Amino acid sequence: MVREHGEVRTYGAGLLSSYGEIQQVERAELRPLDVGRMGVQTYDITHYQPVLFCAEGFGEIEDVIGTFFADVDDDTVTRLLHDASAPA
Question: What is the pLDDT of residues 7-66, one digit of tens each?
């Protein structure tokens, strides 16, 4: 998801390939773009996703993804999985 001119729009092959999922976007919880969290998020491919991540523009996508890959190291996945399984 990405905001463009104040409107939330679908972006990416996963959403764009599913007309039904696009129709359900309004019901989803939109969270700020977080590549690490996206990677450890539990997904049920048999249902429309209740949580989607939304960038505030294409510039944010470039910044967030660029920063993530610049900072990622061998311990990143282990840390992200640990953080995701910790109680909220």
Answer: 999 887 777 677 788 888 889 999 999 888 888 888 888 888 899 999 999 999 999 988
Element (H, E) at 38: helix 35-40
How does pLDDT run across 7-20, given as a tens digit for each residue?
999 887 777 677 78
The residue behind tokens 């764009």 is 16
Q: Is the pTM of this model over 0.90?
A: no
Q: Is 33 exposed, middle or buried (0-12, 13-18, 19+ CB in 10 A)?
A: buried
Structure tokens at 53: 């991540």
Residue 52 CB-density burial (10 A; 0-12 exposed, 13-18 middle, 19+ buried): buried
